Amino acid sequence: MSTTDTDSTSEQNDSTAPPRELLRTAGLKKYFALNDGLLDRVFGETAHVKAVDGVNLTVRAGETVGVVGESGCGKSTLGRTLTRLYDPTDGSVIFDGEHIETYSGRDLKALRRRVQYVFQDPMSALNPRKTVGESVGKPLEVHDIASGTERTDRVANLFEEMGLMRSQLDAYPHELSGGQLQRVGLARALITEPDLVVFDEPVSALDVTLQAQILNLINRLQGEYDLSYVFISHNLNVVRHVCDRIAVMYAGEVVERGTTEQLFENPQHPYTRALLRSVPSVRERHEREREELPGSPPSATNPPSGCRFHPRCPEFIDGRCVSEAPETRSVAGDQGHEVACHWAELSVEKREAHTPPDGAARETIEREGASGEK
Amino acid sequence: MSDPLLTVEDLAVTFPDPDGSDTRAVDGVSLSVEAGEIHGLVGESGSGKSVTARTVLRLLDDADVSASRLAYRGEDLLAKSEREMRAVRGDEIGMVFQDALSALNPVMTVGEQIAEVVRHHGDVDESTSLLSELRRKYVTGTSKSTASWRRAVELLETVGIPDPEQRASEYPHQLSGGQRQRVMIAQALAGDPSLIIADEPTTALDVTVEAGILTELRELCADFNVAILLITHDLGVVAQTCDHVTVMYSGSVMEHGPTDDIFEAPAHPYTEGLLRSIPEGAKRGDELATIPGSAPDPRDRPAGCPFRDRCPEATEACTDSLPEHALSAEHHTYCHHRPHEDGGRDDVRTSPQPER
Ligand SMILES: Nc1ncnc2c1ncn2[C@@H]1O[C@H](COP(=O)(O)OP(=O)(O)OP(=O)(O)O)[C@@H](O)[C@H]1O
Ligand code: SF4
Ligand SMILES: [Mg+2]
Questions:
Q1: Cα A302 to ligand 1 centre (Å)
Q2: pLDDT tens, residue by residue, B33-78
Q3: Predicted complex ipTM
Q4: Is residue A135 part of a domain?
Q5: In principle, which of A183, B54, B107, B160 could form an S-S bond with A162, CB 3.0–4.6 Å?
């Protein structure tokens, strides 16, 4: 399959009008300064963790966009930056037509009501010395939405909606089980009736039967409250079940994006393909061997040159992979599917004919590529 | 069939509580591990998997343990002294934990940590007196020309660590999570054990890395005839790695048998529910099958079948006992209503969706 030259999102050319765009990030970056010694700081050589490094992400009204990738690739940082829990280092975030990357003070507070972030560990978002009913009702007070009995009623109703009991309003976090805490976390996020909810690994810590209960709940709430979701997860089986579209992250960048079907049926990037081959399977346990991805995760302070995946890539072509960062391009004939990889740009015949250079040849290319680069 | 390597029969483990509400973490567990097999012990968190494993190694000293049999190679483990158990732990049964970073010593190189185990349990002719170990530890380090060091490097290579010579001289924090987990496996192998107990060895790892570690474990089984008791809550891991599976729920075994039987013809309502909850193959928006409710409190577990409050088939009979039924020589289930009276089985699929 060859690729066309358009590198912008091809979403505008959809024949049927797509739903309203709720969120769009462009070139979003979040760097963290490392705490270096005094000398380094004096000489301005502070190293940075490039946790998110130029991400474009679009979320349309009513849809669920998945963000997947290895531990440390920047998923959570992306989620926190686009909800403005972190200040972006660069790039823009447009929410409902407004640039929110510069919001502060009152604007930011108003935004918090409409955009919610559900933490990986629900315990961390709850005050251990407050009853969970108080914690869930707190945002109503902060945003002047409701107080007194109205507040109590709203919280109690939402508790029931979440499959919690009214009697649990007075429980403290430590008195609840993992699944119950996750429901409380959801209640806390939904109490302000937001438009967008970012879930950070909402079911990763749960056993499979609890996981199924929570996933069903998350799905049901989306329809009932007309919500848009960003769903961060490393579990591809879960993502496949929950998401309309998916972005695959590697070393702070999105390397491939498309509909869930495009990514699972027609993965283009060698990293996406490796990820899919490594997923454990109950149903295909005899048909398919899981494959590991060799090598270690990339350094976040000093990511590999060229294509950041090149040291581990099973398709590695030549010096270009080492010195030239591949551009994001649309996959021809597959509307809305985008990938950033030199190999994926080759024709099917060329891809099939291609044998990656072996160890020694590859090292030579790496050396030359690295020295040829400025 | 010869005697199993490890036999556990009717194991009960209770953590006494001064308030009187004792926690009965394990309540009548039986399982057996054959030489050279990978045996999966699967269950939700809190179901008693780790407590079972730690009891086998006699690592719990604040618990009341009882069993009609707890034997390794026919020897009663409960009758052994602490000194004898120490020998068992290194030479016979190796251990791999979920969190390698806290299980490894942060101020010793990984090669040093493996070499130490080699000297104590392996077949090398080097002094293990306290004095010489202290000298190695704090002054000289293990000489790179000794047999124990060479063996350590070899073991790192066996578990798939690239550049083993160089890696051996590095500290745990310098390695990636997957590499540290491999170091733990190398260390467990250093005493030439016949059984390795691996407690959630890949739970903290990415799937891309996990796949490699599990392949490694399978190869070790085949190449060195080591048996592995693999503890996990991940059914995908079990399905693709284990020969036999024991399914635990709330301190008790619900079902055990060959992996194919468990996944293709589960006999216990709990196992069925578990398999149906897996989102694999489910389409966007599909309602996933669930088991309503949650597991009982181990301080206050009902008599009879612990699953009965959540079981769609529970009857009065389930409140007083938990009978065992053999579906075949190897496949057993603990349930009043399985197999069904007419002898037929439900047609159970492992996901809510029919094959596409
Ligand atoms: N507050 C921070 N200060 C410095 N570095 C950070 C901070 N938060 C994250 N990082 C670094 O940024 C990178 C991306 O981290 P992030 O938490 O976004 O990854 P992730 O994809 O969510 O990983 P996981 O799957 O393990 O949750 C990592 O290298 C991490 O160590
Ligand atoms: S650009 Fe080159 S190194 Fe990167 S993923 Fe594609 S083929 Fe592999
Ligand atoms: Mg994260």
A1: 14
A2: 999 999 999 998 888 999 999 999 999 888 899 999 999 999 999 9
A3: 0.79
A4: no
A5: A183
